[in-house]
Amino acid sequence: MVVGDMCFLYKDIFVIKAPKKSPMLLRTAVLMFSMVCVLVIFSVCLKQISTEAKTKFIDFKVIDNLTRSRVKQTHIPYLLHYPKPVSFNRNECAPNPVMFFTILSNQRSGSGWFETLLNSHVNVSSNGEIFSVRTRRQNASSVLQTLDRVYNLDWLSSASKNECSAAIGFKWMLNQGIMEHHKEIAEYFKHRSVSIIFLFRRNLLRRMVSMLANSYDRYAKLLNGTHKSHVHSAEEADILSKYKPFINSTSLLEDLKDMEMKAEKALEYFNSSRHMILYYEDLMRNHTKLKDVQEFLGLPEMKLTSRQVKIHKGPLSDHIQNWDDVNKVLTGTVYESFLEADY
Ligand SMILES: *[C@@H]1O[C@H](CO)[C@@H](O)[C@H](O)[C@H]1NC(C)=O
Ligand SMILES: *[C@@H]1O[C@H](CO)[C@@H](O)[C@H](O)[C@H]1NC(C)=O
Ligand SMILES: *[C@@H]1O[C@H](CO)[C@@H](O)[C@H](O)[C@H]1NC(C)=O
Ligand SMILES: *[C@@H]1O[C@H](CO)[C@@H](O)[C@H](O)[C@H]1NC(C)=O
Ligand SMILES: *[C@@H]1O[C@H](CO)[C@@H](O)[C@H](O)[C@H]1NC(C)=O
Ligand SMILES: *[C@@H]1O[C@H](CO)[C@@H](O)[C@H](O)[C@H]1NC(C)=O
Ligand SMILES: *[C@@H]1O[C@H](CO)[C@@H](O)[C@H](O)[C@H]1NC(C)=O
């Protein structure tokens, strides 16, 4: 049922009038009845409006300007879903609605950490990067089939909470087929009322360091011969952060711009779906942001936890081999603040 539709009902209720010549008792009863109805429906509408009023703005350096006026979230109604999985029975939770969501992000933007936080909620199943497997994103029809399985709760992963999931989704990196098949996917998201959490990292230079270090470790395997993208202890983080990548300063400005443009494009493709925009840095600084996320997903609020530990801490100058070049290239540009910022 579309909650939004109910908000039109109140018009009809105002039309209920007691007949002029009916006994006093009947008129009072009709009046009371219509007042109760109005109250109930207003409370539903208010709840809906407060959930949808989550207008977020993207504020990358350049994108900022382009989108501030555009990405005003309109009142996009969403459907509540009651999936009927074939692989198990939802049992006593069958009457509970399920929110469909996806996390759209980029590698090394905190999405792994964010997903472990979400999955610590008893009613969330976020199934990881299911489109990292190439055959699932080969063409639009294999993408849509995969989506159907996920949202029907028939995708079984270690994150599945099965019958009592109140929000079901996964994370999707922008380089995993979503941009290539954006037309069909945007249509699907709209049609099935999938809510989107855009998770971006403001400091793209830090993201670059993390990407280079991670891809170096794929070969170097600094942790006793095992490659790890995420760690759970300060010692492991220390070892991984010892490697200082070299950043190509010739292409740096171009590369940063490309990263921004890609994020902007994604926003544009999917701006007609219900969405919120989150920044890694804001999550790090302010855990109450997680309240907004839970509200957006229509979840009962809980304290969320993750065991993951951040790898690169402290000033960036400690983490880049050719710091002087990088510093020179970015100073005086819109990206200058990346040199200073924490996180
Ligand atoms: C923002 O947009 C305006 C108008 O297009 C332009 O004049 C201004 O230079 C832009 N600012 C930035 C920081 O890009
Ligand atoms: C789409 O990809 C799937 C999986 O790789 C393949 O089996 C199927 O034949 C493809 N369909 C089309 C229409 O190309
Ligand atoms: C959340 O999960 C718990 C435990 O499985 C369940 O009792 C509860 O009904 C679920 N809440 C929602 C909103 O689905
Ligand atoms: C690496 O192996 C040594 C010896 O087996 C062990 O003491 C140490 O904790 C391991 N370090 C990591 C980061 O796994
Ligand atoms: C740096 O980028 C430039 C321009 O893309 C390229 O020509 C050059 O080979 C790169 N240098 C290194 C060391 O990768
Ligand atoms: C979505 O982006 C398109 C292309 O830039 C734009 O025409 C449209 O107005 C945007 N829609 C919303 C709801 O912002
Ligand atoms: C933290 O986030 C909450 C929710 O988004 C916001 O209301 C609050 O102002 C933020 N606090 C700080 C210090 O940024």
From TrEMBL:
Protein name, UniProt field: Sulfotransferase
Lineage: Eukaryota, Viridiplantae, Streptophyta, Embryophyta, Tracheophyta
Matches recorded under Pfam families: Sulfotransfer_1 (PF00685)
One annotated GO molecular function: sulfotransferase activity
Signal peptide bounds: none
TM region positions: 24-46
Record EC number: 2.8.2.-
Keyword presence, Translocase: no
Sulfotransferase domain: residues covered: 103-302
Top EC group: transferase
UniProt keyword terms in alphabetical order: Membrane, Transferase, Transmembrane, Transmembrane helix
Top-level taxon of the source organism: Eukaryota
Family: Belongs to the sulfotransferase 1 family.
